Amino acid sequence: MVYNCTMSTTEKPVRQSVSLPPRLARRVRTIAKSQQTSTNRVLVELIETGIESKEAEKNKFFELADKLSTSSDPVERKRIKEALARMTFGE
């Protein structure tokens, strides 16, 4: 078992079964081989990175929403609305 600094050694790991599409499984194995680590470690790191990314995106959204509510400049408000729309609906 390999632990990284974000996982407390007192926490008991939970076994979780995940089915991956073959193409994605090959990519995970390739990454693991190039980093000389296990596929499990690669999956854990990818999941942690994904969760952190989603949290950062959520924080950015709320930061922009707060700026929108406090801004009185029409040009700035329009820019913020466009940014929020892109975050919500995509390009």
What are the key terms here?
91 residues; mainly alpha; elongated
Put the structure in a nutshell.
This protein has helices spanning 22-35, 39-70, 74-89. The protein has 91 residues and is an all-alpha fold.
Task: Give structural notes.
This protein has 91 residues and is mainly alpha-helical. It has one domain. It has helices spanning 22-35, 39-70, 74-89. Helix 1 (22-35) crosses helix 2 (39-70) and helix 2 runs antiparallel to helix 3. The chain is elongated. The model has no long low-confidence stretch (mean pLDDT 90).
Q: Any idea what the shape is?
A: elongated
Structural class: mainly alpha
Number of helices: 3
Overall number of domains:
1
Residue fraction in strands? under 5%
Major β-sheet, in short? none
| Number of E-type strands | 0
Over all CA atoms, what is the radius of gyration? Answer: 20 Å
* SSE string, helices as H and strands as E: HHH
Percent of residues in helices comes to 55-70%
Task: Please mark out the parts with pLDDT under 50 across 5 or more consecutive residues, or reply none.
Answer: none
State the distance separating the first and last CA atoms. Answer: 42 Å
Average pLDDT taken over every residue: 90
Layout: helices, strands, pairs:
Layout: H1 22-35, H2 39-70, H3 74-89
Helix pairs in contact: 1-2, 2-3
